[in-house]
């Protein structure tokens, strides 16, 4: 068993609500969130594979928690645009976190989805995986790297939810890296390109790099429909997209969603990997988490 806890705290640390329980804890708080508020998840025995949904406006995600605490800042103002109008709104809030059943770990699923992923300051190590990293600087939350793994794959427009995406702001050397925090078995890559034409353009090709050293050039089409590429059951800790070839000089390319279909390497016994190890960085994808764009 693992003792789990959820707290709602103000920006100054004042406790507004708390719940603790073994293996499964719910958040059932009555009150309105204010700027600076945060939800704090605690776990007495990390690392743990968890099923997590901290708000009714977010999808459930299967995540790996590698530390004793994870803090989720409640989005306000422009930050909320990527989450949708229902997320964290109103005066009644419900969510949950539970330890993943070993039988669930055997399932074939999207290993890249994490609707609770956060953009981190340069040099900060994530404690919740999967995690999206990019070298693109970004001030607009509607185009952050985290949007590409939030589970929303609406491709027809750009901007606020449900059209949030990863945008590159016309940066020629842009890359996107998805870190799993452990070794996983990856069978299939799915890409959803943003297609708000004529505002948008698309990428003709991209270089896919896997943490095991494999590299392949992906040929892409001008469609918002799912584009699928086999990964052959590769055992990887991360993958990256780089060398993005823009199809047209005008327009802004963007990625609505990236999915990695597969399963855990060993559902009953797994070890945490550090995807930031220098010797693993065979993708030549840079050194910091910086994110922006259109």
Task: Lay out the secondary structure.
Layout: E1 3-9, E2 15-22, E3 24-30, E4 38-43, E5 48-53, E6 61-65, E7 69-73, E8 92-99, E9 109-110, E10 128-129, E11 131-134, E12 166-167, E13 176-193, E14 203-210, E15 215-219, E16 227-246, E17 254-264
Region (Disordered): 266-294
Protein name: Carbohydrate-binding protein
What does this structure look like?
The protein has 294 residues and is mainly beta. The chain folds into two domains: 3-100, no CATH class; 106-280, Galactose-binding domain-like (Jelly Rolls). 0% of the residues lie in helices and 42% in strands. The protein contains no helices and 17 strands. The strands form three sheets. Strands 9, 11, 12, 13, 14, 15, 16 and 17 form an eight-stranded antiparallel beta sheet that branches. The protein has a five-stranded antiparallel beta sheet with strand order 3-8-5-6-10, with no helix packed on it. The chain is globular and about 50 Å long. It starts with a strand and ends in a 30-residue tail after the last strand.
């Amino acid at each position: 068993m693992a003792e789990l806890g959820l707290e709602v705290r103000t920006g100054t640390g004042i406790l507004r609500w708390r719940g603790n329980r073994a293996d499964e804890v719910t958040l059932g708080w009555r009150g309105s969130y204010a700027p600076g508020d945060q939800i704090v998840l605690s776990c007495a025995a990390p690392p743990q594979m968890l099923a997590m949904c901290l708000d009714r406006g977010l999808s459930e995600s299967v995540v790996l928690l590698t530390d004793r605490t994870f803090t989720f800042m409640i989005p306000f103002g422009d930050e909320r645009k990527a989450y949708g109008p229902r997320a964290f709104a109103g005066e009644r809030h419900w969510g949950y976190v539970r330890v993943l059943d070993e039988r669930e770990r055997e399932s074939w699923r999207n290993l890249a989805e994490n609707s609770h992923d956060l953009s981190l300051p340069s040099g900060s190590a994530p404690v919740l995986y999967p995690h999206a990293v990019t070298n693109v600087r970004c001030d607009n939350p509607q185009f952050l790297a985290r949007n590409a793994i939030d589970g929303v794959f609406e491709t027809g427009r750009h901007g606020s939810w449900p059209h949030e995406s990863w945008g590159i702001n016309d940066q020629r050397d842009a890359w996107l890296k998805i870190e799993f925090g452990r070794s996983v078995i990856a069978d299939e890559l799915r890409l959803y390109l943003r297609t708000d034409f004529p505002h948008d353009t698309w990428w003709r090709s991209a270089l896919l790099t896997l943490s095991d050293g494999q590299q392949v050039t992906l040929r892409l089409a001008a469609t918002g429909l799912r584009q699928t590429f086999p990964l052959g059951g590769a055992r990887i800790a991360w993958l990256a997209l780089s060398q993005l070839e823009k199809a047209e000089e005008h327009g802004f390319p963007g990625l609505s969603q990236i999915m990695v279909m597969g399963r855990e390497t060993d559902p009953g016994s797994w070890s945490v990997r550090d995807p930031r190890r220098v010797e693993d960085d065979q993708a030549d994808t840079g050194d910091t988490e910086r994110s922006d764009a259109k």
